[in-house]
Amino acid sequence: MTTATALLETLADVGVDRLRGGYSRHGFDRADAELREWFTAEATARGLDVSTDRNGNLWAWWGTPGPNAVVTGSHLDSVPGGGAFDGPLGVVAALSALDALRAEGFRPTRPLAVVVFAEEEGGRFGVPCLGSRLLAGTLDADRARNLKDADGTTLAEAVRAAGLDPRWLGPEPELVSRIGCFVELHVEQGRGLADLDAPVGVASSILAHGRWRLTFHGEGNHAGATPLADRRDPMVPAASLVLAARRVAGSVPGARATVGRLVPTPGGTNVIPSTVDVWLDARAPGDADTRHLVDDVVAAAREAAEAEGCTVTVREESYGDTVIFDGGLRDELTSLLGGAPALPTGAGHDAGVLAGRVPTAMLFVRNPTGVSHAPAEHAEPDDCEAGVAALARVLTHLAGAPC
Ligand code: GLV
Ligand code: MN
Ligand code: MN
After folding, report:
1. Which one of the ligands is nearest to 347 CA?
2. Taking the chain, what is the end-to-end CA distance rounded to the nearest angstrom?
3. 342 CB less than 6 Å from ligand 1?
4. Tens-place pLDDT, residues 258-286
5. Substitution candidate for ligand 1 out of 121, 130, 184, 187 with most atoms within 8 A of CB
6. Which of 25, 52, 256, 300 has its Cα between 20 and 30 A from that of 402?
């Protein structure tokens, strides 16, 4: 039987980012097409029935699709220059867990499915959990069709190129109604399990989080010929925004704020930009704190823009409130797994979207570096196998009982 680590290894060459390091695999791009082919081949080789839903999510069914199915899986896309485990570990663990069930001669009394959600990171079209949000109906389909990547390609154009009809994008209540419960295994994205010396844990909650795009408008001009007093340089308030994000987040317990992407236009070393786009990622333990944090950062950005003779426009690109995972299911899994620790996370997941629709749980696998969304993200092979064993145990339990 192929181990999860060996399965992951078969993806080692897909979407390698030679410029940034790590992997760049984004929804409906070339690497994504290869990953879809890979998943279809692996699932088909296991005798699973593979289909693509209207939103580009892949489903591999063991047994007749639904109702009351036990679904597991994750995503295969990455952030730009991401690690090898965030997403793919949950997919290979799902396939390996099914292998283990089969090897034991397990016969599920409920349908089982492995799902691969499309564009979970939002690395190409900006909105995270794109496939699961569309499926669940928490993202407007018209808005989604018009999302653009950095080259101006719309999601509608990208899905059409991938062989899907963009008119199909949108909620799939019938498919959602087939899901009895969803369990996503994921590499941990912090040091919680490493500090507890535990290989596997169960998720308790996800921070409220969202993305805001601020565009500072100034006046493009010459870097050498324009006296400082004559400038309306949008990079100056953009820089203030970065510092305000750190300062304000530091005053809200448990909050985080990040600027990981900043694009000046036109982007020349000797050119004062005419506009600067800045993406703010803000997270906090509750909705009110997250909203206040963003309001305060935006107020600081407006003040800085005005002082430089610039203007700023603000657009919310995505938002998800705090997720508290189903307490009954969480407790059932922690006791099934011999008292595995329950941990909160600051990272977003498709499981967070599904949690609004069906009983949902997550298993975490220890990450000794605590690093994620970067090439240093890691999980030891033994811990990956412990994750597979835990997932197999959970699936055996759930596929024989209602959840
Ligand atoms: C995805 O992993 C996120 O938390 O943004
Ligand atoms: Mn991620
Ligand atoms: Mn992930």
Report:
1. 1
2. 29
3. no
4. 999 999 999 999 999 999 999 999 999 99
5. 121
6. 52
Q: pLDDT tens across 85-101, in order? A: 999 999 999 999 999 99
pLDDT per position as a tens digit, 66-75: 899 999 999 9
Cβ(286)–Cβ(322) below 8 Å? yes
326-345 per-position pLDDT tens digit? 999 999 999 999 999 999 99
> Distance between CA atoms of 91 and 371, rounded to whole angstroms?
20
Q: Which residue, among 89, 12, 82, has the nearest Cα to 364 in the 3D structure?
A: 89
User: How far, in Å, from the CA of 194 to the mean position of ligand 1?
Assistant: 20
**pTM to 2 decimals?**
0.97
Planar angle of CA 375, 90, 321, nearest 5 degrees:
90
**What is the rounded CA–CA span in Å between residue 51 and residue 232?**
53
Q: State the Cα–Cα distance between residues 133 and 154, nearest whole angstrom.
A: 17
Residue 87, ligand 1, Cβ within 6 A:
no
Among candidate residues 261, 284, 320, 280, the one with its CA nearest the CA of residue 120: 320
Identity of residue 68: N
* Ligand 1 lined by 348 (C-beta under 6 Å): yes
Other beta carbons less than 10 A from residue 315's beta carbon: 10
Can you give the C-alpha Rg of the chain in angstroms?
A: 22
* pLDDT exceeds 90 at position 402: no
High-pLDDT (> 90) share of the chain, %:
98
How many Å apart are CA 9 and CA 6, to the nearest integer? 5
* Rounded CA separation 187/366 (Å): 7
Query: The tokens of 80 are what?
Result: 């730009």
